Design the sequence.
DNA sequence: CATAGAAAAATTGGATCCAATATTCAATCC
DNA sequence: GGATTGAATATTGGATCCAATTTTTCTATG
């Protein structure tokens, strides 16, 4: 037999597709906070009935990306500044630990991949891609911690504030500063200094949080 | 107008009820790991159609309490020993921090409530209630951290391993040891020593994890 | 008797239909 | 004119029906 086998166990259901599309739209900010999501409208866009849409919405709600009220429908969840601060606090805690656990497992290939993301981040001029590359950089290092549950929580908490983080990168001096901090984190990883990498990651997340909340305090209301 | 108004905004939907019932059954161990959940059967039990059941199952899956495969149905999720270890590691990290943040906010009333749970735990002889009281003790202290997102993550990770924790309390020397550790944590809280309370909480969670995984290694296959 | 394959039953995913609730808007009253 | 009421419309939650897939049962065959 000379052909590539494809794992057909788990093909995507309609609900999967709708869920992933909406999730992406929300974390990228394509759907604005407070925007309401009508089942029928979404169903038409995906050429399906409301049933898979309802399942997708239910999943999004469990992850805190939308809020729903009975018979009133779903809206893209917004976070207060206090809630955003809390999630950054949480991220700082988890991501520092994940980074610490990752360092001993980092191999040359992974470090090179992270280096490429780090450089690409510095060179990128399109604001729409900053958020994506930033996330790819961190994730590439985090994955070496080999802790699926931890990584799932990192992903979930990132999802909640990604929109705002993208705004921070776009509208503040976030990009050059993040670039410098990435450089320092990567250097610590290359040295194999887990504690330093963890501390720098913690500060990096808290810095971004501080910068973002300062920005929001100026521009909200 | 002279009557008490009742907030009717958010009455429970059928899906809510099914979800909460199944969640409880799973974390208490009433539904065993690997047990399969048929939509029609559950629907009949709740006198409803399969639609709300499907929504409940979808939510449970998002929280990792069940696993589903397309056209094959849902089964209660089981965790490997490695996965259990990881979740205990995660809990130790979060709960220590939550405890640290809670200590400065603990008032006399909260400490008294925790004291009552602590005593009740020591006195309780019914194994089925150990898990519940243990959780109530910790939660009563954690809540003072005033961090809804952190508390949500604590709850979610506890849900994932509660069944096993209950087994550990029941089948090992977990109860007297947990009792002593609760006493020490509570004493640190009463003293207002946040760092100590955090460290003891961390050790308490890791101890329970060690004890549980040792138990499982002996009894699984 | 074991087994491969087909038919039947069971189960899930999705579409359509109905009921409950919310929203809009015109008609009415002051 | 502005507030209030009630009908019309829109929207969500749930029930029922159909299609896709899996699992079980049955049967023929060696």
Sequence:
């Amino acid at each position: 037999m000379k052909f590539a086998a494809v794992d057909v166990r788990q093909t995507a259901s309609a609900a999967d597709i709708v869920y992933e599309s909406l999730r992406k739209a929300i974390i990228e900010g394509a759907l604005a906070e407070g925007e309401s999501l009508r089942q029928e409208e979404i169903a038409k866009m995906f050429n399906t009935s409301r049933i898979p849409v309802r399942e997708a919405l239910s999943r999004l709600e469990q992850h805190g990306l939308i809020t729903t009220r009975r018979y009133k429908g779903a809206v893209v969840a917004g976070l207060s500044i206090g809630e955003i601060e809390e999630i950054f606090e949480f991220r700082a805690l988890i991501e520092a630990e994940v980074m610490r656990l990752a360092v001993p497992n980092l191999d040359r290939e992974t470090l090179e991949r992270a280096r490429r993301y780090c450089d690409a981040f510095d060179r990128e001029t399109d604001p729409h891609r900053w958020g994506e590359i930033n996330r790819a950089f961190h994730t590439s290092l985090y994955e070496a911690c080999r802790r699926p549950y931890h990584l799932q929580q990192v992903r979930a908490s990132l999802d909640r504030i990604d929109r705002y983080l993208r705004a921070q990168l776009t509208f503040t001096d976030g990009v050059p500063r993040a670039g410098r901090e990435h450089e320092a984190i990567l250097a610590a990883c290359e040295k194999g200094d887990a504690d330093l990498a963890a501390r720098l990651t913690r500060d990096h997340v808290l810095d971004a949080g501080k910068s973002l909340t300062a920005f929001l305090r100026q521009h909200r209301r």
